[in-house]
Amino acid sequence: QVQLVESGGGLVEAGGSLRLSCAVSGNIISITYMGWYRQAVGKQRELVATIPSRGTTNYADSVKGRFTISTNNAKNTLYLQMNSLKSEDTAVYYCHARRPSAAGAFDSYWGQGTQVTVSS
């Protein structure tokens, strides 16, 4: 099992910055992929940024150049640095982790979400 707990959300003015954190615990050594997703009111959940255990990071076009995803050395904390925030970034942000399952598929884990509100 993997547990994910987000923090760092809040209210910020447009143009400001926030850093989200996701504490990862449990069987973290088997995680092959982590990422941040977001869901605005009335919209579907969408990918924000991903970071695989091997390979390069990936960003949604809407956040490229403004957001940065990273982990600490122990890989037990996932970060999302958000700069130049816009009102359209307002959403609940979710931490996500994935690891291979015994059946050859993937086990998927989600945090409870943290609200980010950008005032214009």
Description:
There is one protein chain. This protein is mostly beta strands. A hairpin with a 5-residue loop joins strand 7 and strand 8. The mean pLDDT is 95.
Summarize the structure.
0% of the residues lie in helices and 56% in strands. The chain has 120 residues and is mostly beta strands.
Q: For the residues shown, what is the average pLDDT?
A: 95
Number of helices: 0
- Beta content comes to over 45%
Helix content: under 10%
Helix and strand element order: EEEEEEEEEEE
Low-confidence stretches: none
- Main sheet, how many strands, which sense, barrel? 7 strands, mixed
Structural class: mainly beta
| General shape | elongated
| Beta strand count | 11
Distance between the termini: 40 Å
Pick out its properties.
mainly beta; seven-stranded mixed beta sheet; elongated
Write the layout of secondary structure elements.
Blueprint lengths: L1 E6 L2 E4 L4 E9 L6 E7 L6 E7 L5 E2 L7 E5 L5 E6 L8 E10 L5 E5 L3 E6 L1
